[in-house]
Amino acid sequence: MPELTSSELRRFNRQIILPEFGIEAQRRLKAGSVLLVGLGGLGSPASLYLAAAGVGRIGMVDADVVEETNLQRQIVHGQAVLGRLKNESAQARMLDLNPNVQIERHDVRFGIDNALALISRYDVIIDGSDNFPTRYLVNDACVKLGKPDVYGGVLRFDGQLSVFDARTGPCYRCLFPEPPPQEFAPNCAEAGVLGVLPGVIGSLQATEAIKLLTGIGSPMIGRMLVYDGLDLSFNTVHIAKDPDCPVCSHAPQDITLRETVMVCAAPAGRSISSGALQARLQAQDDLVIVDVRNPAEWLPGRIPGAIGWPRPELERALHEPGATPLPKDRDIVLVCQSGMRSHSVIRSMVAAGYDPLRLYNLELGMAAWQGDVQLV
Ligand SMILES: [Zn+2]
């Protein structure tokens, strides 16, 4: 491992004096490398803190230029660089914070043709992307190459964070095997985002990258942090590896990268907000609530009265000829962590003959649920 110069010992003093960190961790950071996929809202704080902390080599993949609408949250850039490449702007800012960091600019779009070559060059990957095709590609390439994928997601006032490392834990596809239908996948440009939200989540991504490089603390492998900015609450849910995961259940050499195509689903079912569901529960409306998450995800709690029925088992029950696993003459609310898996169950139920007008999807799932939970 590289030695630290006297100037580095001085510069990084405030973290070197931490007993859990020390000179060894600082040397590991100097020897380490991180790839930032995207220099937007999440990549902004992540790039700044990683450069400031003394990570030896930082790669950045981004082909976009800085636009005025970016500056509300993409604080690594500024007014003076409007119209310039984001990579160029971030590079200047990072070198100003720490002139010794080795920066590698990849002024290209992250895609199938370059994903493996880029990811293979770095120890830790930070997914700062804002779209599903890139997120799945980062995940699949990281699984294939055995690299940790520090995932962050932000929308409106809500954020998520996890570390997907398929060598010891689940990957992104264990949770979400396929992207949701286009209309269930709003992005920040359509749905909005509070500017400071990616600041919170991107800073946590930098924290996880530093922990992975230095070996301090316990990384968020197998756990998902769910942040609600309006409540100012942080919740952690445990996430399990799916033995049938379409990607990480395979040997690395059998994993083939593929393009993720976003499709529009035929309208199926209705959606219900967390507040509207609480109101119906308080009014003691006749409702069946079915929680289709994995049993491990129920541990932090379920909506009172919810039946736990993991999606794969419920889908199997629906496919049995003549079976009616759930009543057809009552309103049914389907619940999962984010509203994606439950929506796909609703589509299967409609295909199995259930009335779409009696099926409700809890919008944004348990991540948005603000009422009581019962522990199971
Ligand atoms: Zn997986």
Can you offer a commentary on this structure?
The chain is an alpha/beta fold and 376 residues long. The chain folds into 2 domains: 32-254, NAD(P)-binding Rossmann-like Domain (Rossmann fold, 3-Layer(aba) Sandwich); 270-368, Oxidized Rhodanese, domain 1 (3-Layer(aba) Sandwich). It has 15 helices and 13 strands. An 8-stranded mixed beta sheet has the order 3-2-1-4-5-6-7-8, with helices on both faces. α4 runs parallel beside α5 (86-97), α4 (43-53) runs parallel beside α10 (196-214) and α13 packs parallel to α14 (340-351). The longest helix has 19 residues, at 196-214. The chain is elongated, with a radius of gyration of 22 Å. The protein starts with 5 loop residues before the first helix and ends in an 8-residue tail after the last helix. The mean pLDDT is 93. Zinc ion (ZN) binds at residues 166, 170-171, 173-174, 242, 245, 247-248. Zinc ion (ZN) is lined by residues 166, 170-171, 173-174, 242, 245, 247-248.
